[in-house]
Write a structure and sequence with these properties.
Layout lengths: L1 H35 L3 H9 L1 H12 L1 H17 L1 H28 L1 H6 L10 H33 L4 H21 L6 E2 L2 E2 L7 H17 L2 H6 L13 H32 L6 H36 L3 H38 L3 H15 L2 H16 L4 H24 L5 H5 L4 H14 L9 H24 L4 H19 L1 H4 L6
Antiparallel strand pairs: 1-2
Helix pairs in contact: 1-8, 1-12, 2-7, 2-12, 3-4, 3-5, 3-7, 3-11, 4-5, 4-7, 4-11, 4-12, 5-7, 7-9, 8-9, 11-16, 12-13, 12-14, 12-15, 13-14, 13-15, 13-19, 13-20, 15-18, 16-18, 19-20
Length: 514
């Protein structure tokens, strides 16, 4: 019982700092949007992030880290901290060398990667493609830093330490905000009567902000390494039994992350073919806004649960494993369904006020975000289900799920740019509904391997009803209350969100009893 209550408290703590991170990310995005607008330059910056992000996700941040936590948790439990840090060192050494080698190849062939028909941005003009290649090379510096920082997060989480890893993304966004306010502008920002220095680096300054943020992301976690007596081992030794266990997990995880990142690249590839200025940025910002509630609810809970689920799986305590999964799924379903509806109902005036786009740009971003919000529940469930399979050391199931998702995603995206080009970015966002199909498949496959049936329908029905009534009340208040559009939208969010929370309170409070 003490262990489960610790999970509830930790989930709330991680959710709070993830919320801080998302608030800073939102501020950073608004500052960038107001400085660069929906422009070709901003589209180039957003596209240039894709391949460096893919390298990070494949080599350290995604593939190694997710496969690493279950093995490291088991090593800590059975052999102690010294053996765990020895394993960590070997994996960090391997991850950094692999990242550096891949980054060198990307830097050498950046232009070809951007311009190829199935590359990152074949639909851009030659000047914009050259800018993408230049920004992408610069971004690889941050990728090298993240190749270590991502694994440090996994190492601290395996030690059941979540505070510094949860703070690290907020520091990353602070670094990027410095890039927007100091590195990029030609004219100084004035804050509280104090004029900030302005380096005038333009869109390149945004990338220097990314590099600064990545450095802060790593440095904030160093005290955690000291606290848990980290000792670096200058060795690879891939024949170590624990290393072999991690590498056996990494293969399918790497393929899974490759599929996920290829869909991000495909998204921008499709968007570049729409001949719609701002399509890439609308998809980037729409995805980011959907990620706010998803991260606060889905990612925070899934990240917190992975080490504990790994320990339960190592002990083969499948009864406790099943109980935690069921409670977590009920929380996720009951909270994310109404959250999507309430946010979608109040979104438009807030987008226009915050981002400062014209009417057409605001409408494009609003509808793109609303389509992404349809995937919110599926995304949150997928995060938990994938981690449940990794805790069980069954990494092929998430891979099979991503294969199905990728086939559906590419098919819908290709149809969109062929037959529905006039709709623009929202129709490409609709391809993300394939994620909900993946989540349903993972949930079905896991349920068949648990000792008892998962009881989820009450949470689903309550969530749907809360979405209907909460979203309806939000829209009505935003539309009919007297006052400005922003004020009525905020009242709508508060009123609709409160009604929805009351309707799903029985499921929501399970979070406190995990």
């Amino acid at each position: 019982m003490t262990k489960l209550s610790f999970l509830g408290r930790t989930s709330l703590l991680v959710g709070f700092f993830f919320g801080l991170d998302k608030a800073l990310a939102f501020v950073r995005s608004v500052l960038v949007a107001r400085q660069f607008r929906l422009s070709m330059e901003l589209d180039a910056f957003n596209v240039a992030n894709n391949l460096p992000d893919l390298l990070f996700a494949l080599i350290s941040g995604g593939a190694l880290a997710m496969a690493f936590i279950p093995i490291l948790s088991e090593t800590l439990t059975l052999h102690g901290r010294a053996a765990a840090w020895n394993l960590f060192s070997r994996l960090a050494n391997l991850g950094f060398l692999a990242t550096a080698s891949a980054a060198l190849l990307v830097a050498l062939f950046a232009e070809q990667i951007v311009r190829a028909q199935f590359g990152i941005a074949p639909g851009f003009g030659s000047a914009q493609q050259a800018l993408v290649a230049e920004l992408m090379r610069l971004n690889l510096i941050a990728t090298l830093i993240f190749s270590l920082s991502g694994l440090v997060m996994a190492g601290l989480q395996s030690n059941q330490h979540f505070l510094l890893p949860a703070l690290a993304p907020a520091l990353y966004n602070l670094g990027q905000i410095v890039g927007v306010l100091v590195f990029s502008p030609a004219e100084p920002y004035v804050i509280g009567g104090f004029a900030l220095p302005a380096l005038g680096l333009g869109v390149h300054g945004l990338v220097y902000g990314v590099i600064l943020g990545a450095s802060l992301h790593l440095l904030i976690q160093v005290p955690g390494l000291i606290k848990y007596q980290f000792r670096w081992t200058p060795s690879l030794d891939i024949y170590n039994p624990a290393m072999l266990a991690v590498l056996r997990m990494v293969g399918p995880r790497l393929l899974t992350m490759l599929g996920i990142q290829l869909m991000f690249i495909a998204r921008d590839n499709f968007a570049s073919r729409l001949d719609q200025v701002g399509a890439v940025s609308a998809l980037t910002y729409g995805w980011m806004m959907m990620q706010v509630p998803e991260t606060l609810i889905g990612t925070a809970l899934a990240v917190t649960l992975l080490p504990t689920l790994s320990e339960m799986a190592a002990r083969q305590d499948w009864g406790a494993f099943c109980a935690v999964i069921e409670k977590a799924l009920r929380v996720l379903i009951a909270l994310t369904l109404p959250a999507a509806a309430v946010i979608a109902a109040a979104l438009h005036p807030l987008v226009r006020a915050v981002f400062g786009f014209d009417a057409a740009g605001s409408s494009l971003l609003t509808w793109t975000t609303r389509v992404f919000l349809l995937t919110l529940t599926g995304y949150a469930v997928q995060e938990l289900m994938a981690r449940a399979f990794y805790a069980r050391k069954q990494p092929w199931f998430p891979f099979f799920g991503v294969v199905v998702r990728m086939i559906l995603y590419i098919s819908v995206g290709a149809l969109a740019v062929t037959y529905f080009r006039s709709v623009g970015a929202p129709v490409i966002a609709a391809a993300e509904l394939s994620l909900t199909v993946e989540a349903a498949l993972l949930c079905f496959w896991l349920a068949r391997r648990l000792p008892k049936r998962l009881y989820l329908w009450p949470a689903a029905w309550k969530g749907l009803l809360a979405a209907l009534f909460g979203g309806g009340l939000t829209y009505a208040l935003a539309l009919y209350l007297p006052g400005g559009a922003i004020v009525t939208a905020l009242f709508g969010l508060a009123g609709g969100g409160l009604l929805a929370l009351v309707m799903v309170w029985r499921e929501a409070r399970l979070l406190l009893r995990l």
